[in-house]
Predict the structure.
Amino acid sequence: MTDNDEQDNRILTPQYYWPNKMGRMFLLALEDVMGKNGVNAVLNYARLRHRINNYPPNNLDLGWSFDEMGALNQALEDMYGPRGGKGLAIRAGRAGLYYALKDFAAVMGIADLAFRLLPLGVKVKIGLNAMAETFNKTSDQIVRIEEDANHFYYHIDRCPVCWGRKAEIPICYGGLGLLQEGLHWVTGGKNIPVEEVLCIAKGDPSCTYRVGKRPLD
Ligand SMILES: [Zn+2]
Protein backbone atom coordinates (compact mmCIF):
# COMPACT_ATOMS: atom_id res chain seq x y z
CA MET A 1 0.00 0.00 0.00
CA THR A 2 1.38 3.42 -0.94
CA ASP A 3 1.15 6.52 1.19
CA ASN A 4 -1.50 7.84 -1.15
CA ASP A 5 -3.69 4.75 -0.79
CA GLU A 6 -3.43 5.07 2.93
CA GLN A 7 -4.47 8.69 2.79
CA ASP A 8 -7.43 7.89 0.53
CA ASN A 9 -8.58 5.21 2.92
CA ARG A 10 -8.49 7.62 5.79
CA ILE A 11 -10.64 10.09 3.88
CA LEU A 12 -13.18 7.41 2.88
CA THR A 13 -13.46 5.81 6.32
CA PRO A 14 -13.96 8.25 9.17
CA GLN A 15 -11.84 7.52 12.24
CA TYR A 16 -13.58 7.45 15.59
CA TYR A 17 -12.00 7.49 19.02
CA TRP A 18 -12.32 6.92 22.73
CA PRO A 19 -10.25 9.25 24.91
CA ASN A 20 -6.80 7.87 25.68
CA LYS A 21 -7.69 7.18 29.30
CA MET A 22 -10.58 4.87 28.32
CA GLY A 23 -8.31 2.78 26.11
CA ARG A 24 -5.77 2.74 28.94
CA MET A 25 -8.48 1.59 31.38
CA PHE A 26 -9.55 -1.24 29.08
CA LEU A 27 -5.95 -2.45 28.72
CA LEU A 28 -5.32 -2.25 32.49
CA ALA A 29 -8.59 -4.13 33.16
CA LEU A 30 -7.56 -6.78 30.65
CA GLU A 31 -4.23 -7.03 32.49
CA ASP A 32 -6.12 -7.70 35.74
CA VAL A 33 -7.89 -10.58 34.01
CA MET A 34 -5.10 -12.21 31.95
CA GLY A 35 -1.78 -10.71 33.12
CA LYS A 36 0.62 -8.42 31.32
CA ASN A 37 2.12 -11.16 29.14
CA GLY A 38 -1.36 -12.17 28.06
CA VAL A 39 -2.21 -8.62 27.05
CA ASN A 40 1.08 -8.31 25.17
CA ALA A 41 0.28 -11.50 23.25
CA VAL A 42 -3.19 -10.23 22.32
CA LEU A 43 -1.81 -6.83 21.24
CA ASN A 44 0.78 -8.60 19.12
CA TYR A 45 -1.86 -10.85 17.53
CA ALA A 46 -4.13 -7.85 16.88
CA ARG A 47 -1.29 -6.06 15.01
CA LEU A 48 -1.17 -3.43 17.74
CA ARG A 49 2.52 -3.92 18.55
CA HIS A 50 2.95 -0.15 18.90
CA ARG A 51 0.82 -0.38 22.07
CA ILE A 52 2.95 -3.02 23.81
CA ASN A 53 4.50 -1.33 26.89
CA ASN A 54 3.13 1.87 25.42
CA TYR A 55 -0.47 2.20 26.61
CA PRO A 56 -2.39 5.37 25.78
CA PRO A 57 -1.62 8.16 28.30
CA ASN A 58 -4.00 9.01 31.13
CA ASN A 59 -5.72 11.98 29.48
CA LEU A 60 -8.92 12.86 27.64
CA ASP A 61 -7.33 13.40 24.19
CA LEU A 62 -9.09 11.30 21.55
CA GLY A 63 -6.29 8.82 20.81
CA TRP A 64 -7.60 5.24 21.20
CA SER A 65 -9.27 4.43 17.88
CA PHE A 66 -12.31 2.25 17.28
CA ASP A 67 -10.10 0.34 14.80
CA GLU A 68 -7.78 -0.58 17.68
CA MET A 69 -10.65 -1.48 20.02
CA GLY A 70 -12.33 -3.67 17.37
CA ALA A 71 -9.05 -5.40 16.48
CA LEU A 72 -8.21 -6.07 20.13
CA ASN A 73 -11.62 -7.61 20.84
CA GLN A 74 -11.48 -9.68 17.65
CA ALA A 75 -8.04 -10.97 18.68
CA LEU A 76 -9.46 -12.15 22.03
CA GLU A 77 -11.98 -14.27 20.14
CA ASP A 78 -9.47 -15.53 17.55
CA MET A 79 -6.91 -16.54 20.19
CA TYR A 80 -9.15 -17.98 22.88
CA GLY A 81 -12.16 -19.13 20.85
CA PRO A 82 -15.68 -17.67 21.04
CA ARG A 83 -16.34 -18.93 24.59
CA GLY A 84 -12.92 -18.16 26.03
CA GLY A 85 -12.77 -14.75 24.38
CA LYS A 86 -16.27 -13.94 25.60
CA GLY A 87 -15.37 -14.81 29.20
CA LEU A 88 -12.20 -12.69 29.12
CA ALA A 89 -13.97 -9.70 27.54
CA ILE A 90 -16.85 -9.78 30.04
CA ARG A 91 -14.42 -9.97 32.95
CA ALA A 92 -12.34 -7.13 31.51
CA GLY A 93 -15.51 -5.02 31.17
CA ARG A 94 -16.39 -5.79 34.80
CA ALA A 95 -12.88 -4.93 36.02
CA GLY A 96 -12.91 -1.81 33.86
CA LEU A 97 -15.80 -0.36 35.83
CA TYR A 98 -13.58 0.22 38.87
CA TYR A 99 -11.01 2.15 36.83
CA ALA A 100 -13.87 4.20 35.37
CA LEU A 101 -15.39 4.92 38.78
CA LYS A 102 -12.10 6.31 40.09
CA ASP A 103 -12.10 8.85 37.29
CA PHE A 104 -15.72 9.45 36.42
CA ALA A 105 -17.95 8.69 39.47
CA ALA A 106 -17.59 12.13 41.05
CA VAL A 107 -18.32 13.76 37.70
CA MET A 108 -21.43 11.62 37.27
CA GLY A 109 -22.76 12.56 40.73
CA ILE A 110 -23.45 8.94 41.69
CA ALA A 111 -20.93 8.68 44.52
CA ASP A 112 -22.95 10.88 46.91
CA LEU A 113 -24.57 9.58 50.07
CA ALA A 114 -27.99 10.90 49.01
CA PHE A 115 -27.83 8.70 45.92
CA ARG A 116 -27.89 5.55 48.08
CA LEU A 117 -31.29 6.50 49.49
CA LEU A 118 -33.02 6.57 46.10
CA PRO A 119 -35.43 3.77 45.04
CA LEU A 120 -33.82 0.96 43.00
CA GLY A 121 -35.50 1.82 39.68
CA VAL A 122 -34.35 5.42 39.93
CA LYS A 123 -30.78 4.33 40.69
CA VAL A 124 -30.74 2.08 37.62
CA LYS A 125 -32.07 4.84 35.43
CA ILE A 126 -29.61 7.45 36.75
CA GLY A 127 -26.73 4.95 36.49
CA LEU A 128 -27.50 4.11 32.85
CA ASN A 129 -27.88 7.77 31.96
CA ALA A 130 -24.62 8.68 33.68
CA MET A 131 -22.77 5.96 31.76
CA ALA A 132 -24.34 7.04 28.46
CA GLU A 133 -23.50 10.67 29.12
CA THR A 134 -19.89 9.86 29.98
CA PHE A 135 -19.39 8.13 26.62
CA ASN A 136 -21.36 10.76 24.67
CA LYS A 137 -19.46 13.68 26.20
CA THR A 138 -15.92 12.31 26.16
CA SER A 139 -15.80 9.94 23.14
CA ASP A 140 -17.10 9.31 19.61
CA GLN A 141 -19.26 6.46 20.93
CA ILE A 142 -22.97 7.33 20.63
CA VAL A 143 -25.40 6.05 23.26
CA ARG A 144 -29.12 6.68 23.79
CA ILE A 145 -31.57 5.14 26.22
CA GLU A 146 -35.22 4.16 25.84
CA GLU A 147 -37.56 2.35 28.20
CA ASP A 148 -40.86 0.50 28.31
CA ALA A 149 -42.83 -0.95 31.23
CA ASN A 150 -40.31 -3.69 32.11
CA HIS A 151 -37.01 -2.77 30.48
CA PHE A 152 -34.49 -0.10 29.67
CA TYR A 153 -32.83 -0.25 26.25
CA TYR A 154 -29.22 0.95 26.15
CA HIS A 155 -28.60 1.59 22.44
CA ILE A 156 -25.06 2.13 21.15
CA ASP A 157 -25.40 3.65 17.69
CA ARG A 158 -21.63 3.80 17.12
CA CYS A 159 -19.83 0.99 18.91
CA PRO A 160 -16.05 0.52 19.28
CA VAL A 161 -16.17 -3.09 20.55
CA CYS A 162 -17.50 -4.60 17.30
CA TRP A 163 -16.04 -1.90 15.03
CA GLY A 164 -15.13 -3.48 11.67
CA ARG A 165 -16.24 -6.96 12.82
CA LYS A 166 -18.81 -9.44 11.48
CA ALA A 167 -20.71 -11.99 13.56
CA GLU A 168 -23.79 -14.21 13.68
CA ILE A 169 -24.63 -13.33 17.28
CA PRO A 170 -24.14 -10.23 19.46
CA ILE A 171 -20.44 -9.98 20.42
CA CYS A 172 -20.01 -6.78 22.43
CA TYR A 173 -19.00 -8.55 25.62
CA GLY A 174 -16.80 -5.79 27.05
CA GLY A 175 -19.84 -3.52 27.13
CA LEU A 176 -21.91 -6.30 28.66
CA GLY A 177 -19.45 -6.74 31.53
CA LEU A 178 -19.21 -2.99 32.10
CA LEU A 179 -23.02 -2.67 32.26
CA GLN A 180 -23.44 -5.75 34.49
CA GLU A 181 -20.89 -4.51 37.00
CA GLY A 182 -22.09 -0.89 36.77
CA LEU A 183 -25.65 -1.94 37.61
CA HIS A 184 -24.43 -4.23 40.38
CA TRP A 185 -22.46 -1.33 41.89
CA VAL A 186 -25.11 1.34 41.46
CA THR A 187 -27.83 -0.80 43.10
CA GLY A 188 -25.63 -1.81 46.04
CA GLY A 189 -25.18 -5.42 44.94
CA LYS A 190 -28.40 -6.41 43.14
CA ASN A 191 -28.24 -8.62 40.05
CA ILE A 192 -29.97 -6.66 37.31
CA PRO A 193 -30.49 -8.79 34.18
CA VAL A 194 -28.64 -7.44 31.11
CA GLU A 195 -28.57 -9.01 27.66
CA GLU A 196 -27.25 -7.78 24.32
CA VAL A 197 -30.18 -8.24 21.95
CA LEU A 198 -28.96 -6.37 18.85
CA CYS A 199 -25.46 -5.97 17.42
CA ILE A 200 -24.10 -3.89 14.54
CA ALA A 201 -21.67 -6.76 13.75
CA LYS A 202 -24.63 -8.92 12.68
CA GLY A 203 -26.25 -6.18 10.63
CA ASP A 204 -28.48 -4.51 13.23
CA PRO A 205 -28.70 -0.70 13.31
CA SER A 206 -27.34 -0.54 16.87
CA CYS A 207 -25.72 -2.58 19.60
CA THR A 208 -28.57 -2.76 22.08
CA TYR A 209 -28.54 -4.06 25.65
CA ARG A 210 -31.89 -4.86 27.26
CA VAL A 211 -31.82 -4.13 30.98
CA GLY A 212 -34.49 -5.49 33.34
CA LYS A 213 -36.13 -3.06 35.73
CA ARG A 214 -36.29 -5.66 38.49
CA PRO A 215 -33.38 -7.61 40.00
CA LEU A 216 -33.09 -11.38 39.53
CA ASP A 217 -32.91 -12.08 43.26
ZN1 LIG B 1 -21.07 -3.44 19.17
